Amino acid sequence: MRVLVTGAAGFLGARLAAALAADPRVSAVTGLDRVPAGGTPGFITAEMADFERAAPAADLVLHAAAITSQASEVDPEAAHAVNIDGARALLRWARAQPSPPRILYLSSVAVLGHGEPVATEDSRPAPRSTYGTTKIVAEALLQDATRRGEANAVILRLPVTIIRTATRIAPPGAGFVSDLIDSALRGRPFTAPLPPDHAIPVASVKAVTALALRAALGPVPARLLHVPSLAASVDLARAALLRCGFPVEGIGCAPDPGIVRLVAGWPARLGTLYPAFSEDIADPSLESIIRAYAAQISPRRAVMKMPPAPFGTGG
User: Fold this and answer.
1) CA dist., res. 309 & res. 180, Å (int)
2) What's the topology of domain 2-161+203-226?
3) What is the per-residue pLDDT across 7-26, written as a single tens digit (0 to 9) for each?
4) What CATH architecture applies to the domain 163-202+230-268+284-303?
5) Residue 91 to residue 145: CA distance in whole angstroms
6) pTM over 0.90
7) Distance CA 146, CA 94 (A)
8) I want to staple 190 with a disulfide (CB 3.0 to 4.6 A). Which of 45, 67, 183, 195 is the partner?
């Protein structure tokens, strides 16, 4: 099976490409991103607008390329160009293939906006941000192309994926839970941009990657699926850290009105109508994610106090 991964230079796209390359069912993996990948074999540097011209033939596309939540609010034209027009370019390419290719589209919790404790696949979309709006439009385009027999699309809605450790160049937004946990393990202070009891849905990168590969490469129970998530707030994260034996002094809150608006209406947790599809993959607890991350970093770095890392784009 020949696989193409868009957004392959990103945090999740790069991990998906690596996991696919190690899967015996996959014969070739090509990554595509507008950001060069430093000489990585089989990598194409191109904008999503050029997908139809730049992309090779493939049996499966994992579509992870997107302008993220905060960046979409700052530059809605860029969000429309990548998140909507990029999906349209992908579908033009799909129509030119000998048979309808499988497309796994990584969508987002941001398409939801009713603020329910748990949202499942039958929850009604109600995006409250530019990012969420562009993602639900792309969902509709892919669903319509599938109806027309031009693609074989599966939509996987993701919660916030943790723990991201890339260097930031701006304050964290909806992705602050990663920064909170990383700071606590390293003995750094951290200020979260949401009230202490405001929960958002999170899942580990391990669980998200595994479920994405399952949805991409095997049979699925439906064409719209959720990654089941945990609820994480500052209070819940602090409690989990304490249960794992890590101090939480210096972890505080200073709600940012812009971030509060960005996540307003998100469910506290993503649930699923198809639990058997993911029950052996879903994260059991925040503690399990914290302990796994702590094991990845050296014990010395996990406890020593270090100067704050540079900020970067959040969400």
Assistant:
1) 12
2) Rossmann fold (3.40.50)
3) 999 999 999 999 999 999 99
4) Alpha-Beta Complex (3.90)
5) 7
6) yes
7) 10
8) 183
